[in-house]
Amino acid sequence: MASTEPPAAVTPPSSKPNLLPLASPTIITPSAAASVAVAPTASSSSPATPSVATPRPIPSDAEVFHIPSYSCWFSLGDISECEIRCLPEFFDSRSPSRNPKAYKYIRDSIVKQFRRNPSSKITFTEVRKTLVADVISIRKVFDFLDAWGLINYSPAALNKPLKWEDKDSKSSQHAADSPAGPSLDSTPPVRETSKRLCGSCKSVCSIACFASDKYDITLCARCFVRGNYRVGLSSSDFKRVEISDEMKTDWTEKETLQLLEAVMHYGDDWKKVAQHVGGRSDKDCITHFIKLPMGEQFASSAEFGSSINKLNQMKDDNNISSSSSPSKRLCLSPLADASNPIMAQAAFLSALAGTGVAEAAAQAAVTAVSEMGQGEPKADIRSLHGVQGLQDASITSNGSDVLKSVEEAHSGVNPKPEEKKVNVEEVEEEIRRVAEVQMKQIQEKIVHFEEVDSQIEKEWKQMEQMRDILFYDQLNLLKHERAIRKSGQQAAEGVRTQGDYVS
Amino acid sequence: MKPLPSTSSKTPVKFRMPTSENLVPIRLDIEVGGQRFKDAFTWNISDPDSEVSVFAKRTQKDLKLPLAFATQIAQSIQTQQTEFRSYKGQEMLTGEKIVPIKLDLRVNRTLIKDQFLWDLNNFDSDPEEFSKTFCNDLGIEDPEVGPAVAFAIREQLYEIAIQSVATARESRNAKKGRRGEYSSISRSTGAALDLMKLFSNRYSGVRKRKEWDVFEPMVDMLSNEEVAALESMVERKPR
């Protein structure tokens, strides 16, 4: 009873037919009056002529109906395995009225009814009024046919200028329903923008989307999470792309230049930077600045160039972490005051990139250096300065280990590209140095505490002295008081005795 | 003539539609805000997938009716469903029931009048099949006639089934020992004919000639004016 299985894998429509769309249309042998031609899901100009070359010429007097390529198993004369699989209740003899004959009757009548007027969509109610069967069976068959595009499918709807339609493996219903055309016009592109349309749900991507460069597909975040992508793709093929700043406007060269100037002048004060750039909020400035390739800025300082380039490369790969890490920026603020602005920049970048990344980059650079052999004395001196400066700064910062590595990196780095291997000894040395720095930190703290301690003692002594003085004053006061009282009494007695003499 | 098995007349049977599939005829007649919606269809009550609200919503959307209809439709279907289910546990006596089914309906422009006999004992009967054959044989072009015919048959069978439940209850309450249960049934349900009386002609099972007209189907196509006239008559009646 079942017709031959098509070569492509067929899954029930409830889990979305994730088939790779066939490139060329297939023609089903004519049955009864009409022959059915299958058009690819890509746009076809008119129903009569498929755009891709046909393997066989269509008979001129036959009517042509379009069904999607994943429904090519369908034929009016037979019941295929796909139908048996999707609607098992008609084929398992559980209920007497649901048998293959009844199914065929319902299906054929629905399809014929639709084909009488293929340009308009047929509704379920229209169908059930004309079929002698219980409405639930009719509904099931109707839904099945609808999902597989055997009814209510018109290729004319595909002619809308959708960007990602040829990658869509879902039925064209979505293409017809969601007006992607108007949405393209309604969002006003101020400057040239790349509109991101999700390939499967045809909605405009707003916040973030996932792009696969391998297959050139874009999915919105929701579809990506749900797994609405084709068979053959995995989640690792997709890269997250932030849309919010792309969508709004792109940065012109002038704006970028202004931004860089402002950053040079104002450093970390993003409000002033935003003012200087004009027309951009401070957040926009920050995000754009992060995404700028830093290498060209520091082209003058050759010794920093390569390491920073490396940092940037790794940064670009881990775009996710960099674009959403304002907290990392904050913990760098003590460092930003470092006297050397370039050092501050390097520290800033390394913090953004993540400690692991920067450390790896620096270590790789260090190995390159060690392979090179002796560096020039000039570089050494400068590196020494750099080392000291950074050491001071590193004590106050969180990512001290990172900076240690960064400082190693520009102690006589030559632009040598190959640095893949990291020696175990190098790692040990690094760890040792890191430990040294930590110890120095602790020592400083101890010293500081001692000072504080001695100060407290001094104050304590002072307090004691003052207490003594106070006590002394009190004593004096008492003495005087007693003395005065005595003299007072004596004076009083003297007066009395004199008085006796008189009287 | 084969003697009928006596068990069929005595033992009560659990209530069900005397057809191969336990489908319920549902009739809708809803009036919301001046708009009247009439519909009739068969519903599969044993299917767990049958969602009343989904169906109602779909019908409302497809026919572009105002939203209030959806809830009303769903309610109506639900009440009829529960009514059907309330009969479910009860017994009905089938007896020897050959009942005449009458068709007298108008679907769009087609007028149908017919009468035939239906065997209630035959639980394999299928009104849908009958209806399809009917439409094919009589060359009815309007595809909406088929479901209407099937529905009409079902509705009548449903009525009779309900009646038989009532009689089963009665006979249980009545004294036992009443002779010939089936005769009492045939007395209370006036529609049932006695097989013996029916096949009074001992020689052949063919119907008498004068009865041919009664049992012949009549299909008539009406013109638009007649349809309009009939509709206005129907609408005037309830007012």
Tell me briefly what this model is.
The complex is a heterodimer of chains A (503) and B (239). Chain A is mainly α.
Describe the structure.
The complex is a heterodimer of chains A (503) and B (239). By secondary structure, chain A is mostly helical. Chain A is 53% helix and 4% strand. In chain A, strand 3 (208-212) and strand 4 form a beta hairpin. Chain A is elongated and about 160 Å long. Residues 1-55, 159-194, 298-305, 319-335 and 414-418 of chain A have low confidence and may be disordered. With 239 residues, chain B is α+β, with helices and mostly antiparallel strands. Chain B has 8 helices and 7 strands, in the order H-E-E-E-H-H-E-E-E-H-H-H-H-E-H. In chain B, the strands form 3 sheets. Chain B has a 3-stranded antiparallel β-sheet, covered by helices on one side. In chain B, strands 1-4 form a two-stranded antiparallel ribbon. In chain B, strands 2-3 form a two-stranded antiparallel sheet. The longest helix of chain B has 29 residues, at 145-173. Chain B starts with 6 loop residues before the first helix and ends with a helix.
Topology of this protein?
The complex is a heterodimer of chains A (503) and B (239).
Chain A: E1 35-38, E2 64-67, H1 81-86, H2 100-116, H3 124-130, H4 135-147, H5 173-177, H6 180-186, E3 208-212, E4 217-220, H7 221-226, E5 239-242, H8 244-248, H9 253-266, H10 270-277, H11 282-291, H12 302-317, H13 319-323, H14 326-330, H15 333-336, H16 341-353, H17 355-372, H18 377-396, H19 400-409, H20 424-502
Parallel strand pairs in A: 1-2
Antiparallel strand pairs in A: 3-4, 3-5
Helix pairs in contact in A: 2-4, 9-10, 10-11, 12-16, 12-17, 16-17, 17-19, 18-19, 19-20
Chain B: H1 7-10, E1 13-14, E2 23-32, E3 35-44, H2 52-62, H3 68-86, E4 91-92, E5 98-107, E6 110-119, H4 127-138, H5 145-173, H6 181-188, H7 195-198, E7 218-221, H8 224-236
Protein name (chain B): Bushy growth protein
Pfam families (chain B): SNF5
Subcellular location (chain B): Nucleus
